[in-house]
Design brief:
Elements lengths: L6 H9 L4 E6 L5 H14 L8 E5 L2 H20 L3 H13 L4 E4 H11 L1 H4 L6 E2 L2 H21 L3 H6 L9 H14 L14 H16 L11 H20 L6 H11 L14 E2 L2 E2 H33 L1 H14 L1 E2 L1 H14 L1 H10 L2 E7 L3 H9 L15 E5 L7 E7 L19
Parallel strand pairs: 1-9, 2-3, 2-8, 4-7
Antiparallel strand pairs: 1-10, 5-6, 8-10
Helix pairs in contact: 1-2, 2-3, 3-4, 5-15, 7-9, 7-14, 10-11, 10-13, 15-17
Length: 431
């Protein structure tokens, strides 16, 4: 706190109550300290009361520590406060246990329990622990997977042919379902760009056949590059023998090409003195590396083509998971954020009541992740259609260090000029 480089920013945090502040600083530079100092200043100056302030953290431990530090700072401020200020601080101490200092999930859960009908949820809902939620997801997946095996859609059919290291196709699909469940607040179908998979595979196989044929021209059969070329030729020949008996299996070949691209011999460069007929080692190596790059591009393109197919196919078990939670009266942790967000966004009366009840929001100790963005959307009070009440402004104060690994938001809701929506936020207008 003694560094002069950010003293003006620290002073502003403790005195400028009409502005929304976003504080960036490295760990240990005093973000939480000034956040608590701002809360105490708001109460001491009579700008707000503790029951109208929300302070959000992202772990129960951090919330408990913040409440203890807040009590200590209020008691310290009370010692040399004027009579009127002391009265305000004493009232704050008596309200401390009821103060909205906790995790974002706890805050959203409280909002939902107050208004379950408006939120469209079971009034007696319980929050599913992580293992319970995983169990419901497993149940939904298993029912879907058994049915999908009878007539798999394209995305599932293609993934069933893959064999990642130590992971079977079923495990891949279950992992994909888990990721999509965590991102189910983004339900828009993913864009599938035009991609001629069959044509791309045909081209790759022709390129592999051409470069593999150079192995027979090598002046040194034991050369590392020659060995790689021989493996390429063998890969092409083995597939040609299979295709002599049936049509080309593009699903299977896509999977085989993925595996073949990870063979260690692709890194081998061979000896400079080795020749391949009229071609030097460098000329052959350039041809091989060009094919390698084309193979990698194909894999990237095929993965991009597969992703939207899987996203579409896995909507069914996601919906089944939602139904299982609804039948058992359960919400998972993401539900708390999504449903609180939707409640505030969609119900103008609820939004107006919360705008009147709470004057200031504080968010402490987060990193810029999806969870953070969800949290910000969930507690946003900004109305997209009416000008009241609004965030007066958004100001960024940079603390001591150039490192910005962790940040803290110190936010206030106040009347005044309209705050423009922030790009990428579906509710906009708070941070």
């Amino acid at each position: 706190m003694t560094d002069k480089t950010d003293s003006a920013a620290r002073h502003r945090i403790l005195t400028d109550f009409s502005t929304t502040l976003f504080v960036e600083a490295a760990a240990g530079t005093g973000k939480t300290t000034v956040l608590i100092g701002r809360i105490v200043a708001l109460v001491r100056e009579g700008v707000s009361t503790l029951d109208r302030i929300v302070a959000v953290t992202f772990t129960e431990k951090a919330a408990g520590e913040m409440k203890l530090r807040l009590r200590t700072e209020i008691e310290r401020a009370r010692q040399d406060a004027a009579a009127e200020e002391r009265e305000r601080l004493e009232r704050a101490l008596s309200e401390l246990e009821l103060a909205r200092v906790g995790t974002i999930h706890a805050f959203c859960g409280d909002l939902l329990r107050e208004r379950p009908v408006q939120a469209g949820i079971d009034p007696l809902f319980e929050v599913a622990a992580k293992d319970e939620a995983e169990g419901l997801a497993d149940q939904a997946f298993e029912s879907w997977f058994q049915a999908a095996l009878a007539d798999p859609p394209e995305g599932v059919r293609r993934i069933l042919r893959r064999r990642a290291k130590g992971q079977q196709p079923r495990e891949m699909l279950r992992g994909a379902l888990g990721s999509l469940i965590e991102h189910r607040d983004f339900p828009t179908p993913w864009r599938r760009a035009p991609f001629d998979r069959s044509g791309a595979i045909d081209t790759i196989m022709e390129q592999l056949m051409g470069v593999g044929s150079l192995a027979t021209k090598s002046s040194w059969p034991g050369d590392y590059l020659t060995t790689n070329l021989a493996e390429i030729a063998r890969f092409v020949e083995e597939n040609a023998r299979v295709e002599a008996l049936r049509d080309r299996d593009y699903d299977g070949l896509e999977a085989l090409l993925r595996d073949f691209a990870h063979e260690r011999s692709w890194r081998w460069k061979g000896a400079q003195r080795t020749r391949y007929g009229v071609l030097t080692r460098d000329e052959v190596l350039a041809q091989r590396d060009k094919v390698k790059d084309e193979l990698r591009k194909f894999i990237a393109a095929s993965d991009a083509d597969l992703a939207p197919l899987l996203q579409e196919a896995l909507q069914s078990p996601i919906n089944a998971y939602e139904e299982l939670k609804a039948r058992t009266g359960r919400l998972d942790f993401l539900d708390l954020l999504i449903k609180a967000r939707d409640l505030i966004r969609n119900d103008a009366m609820v939004r107006a009541e919360l705008q009147q009840r709470f004057t200031h929001f504080f968010v402490d100790g987060f990193t810029p992740t999806r969870a953070t963005r969800r949290a910000k959307r969930s507690i946003s009070m900004a109305d997209q259609t009416t000008p009241s009440p609004r965030m007066a402004a958004t100001t960024r104060c940079t603390s001591l260090s150039a490192s910005t690994q962790k940040t803290a938001c110190i936010c206030s809701i106040s009347g005044g000029a309209r705050h423009p929506p922030i790009s990428g936020s579906r509710l906009g207008a708070i941070w």
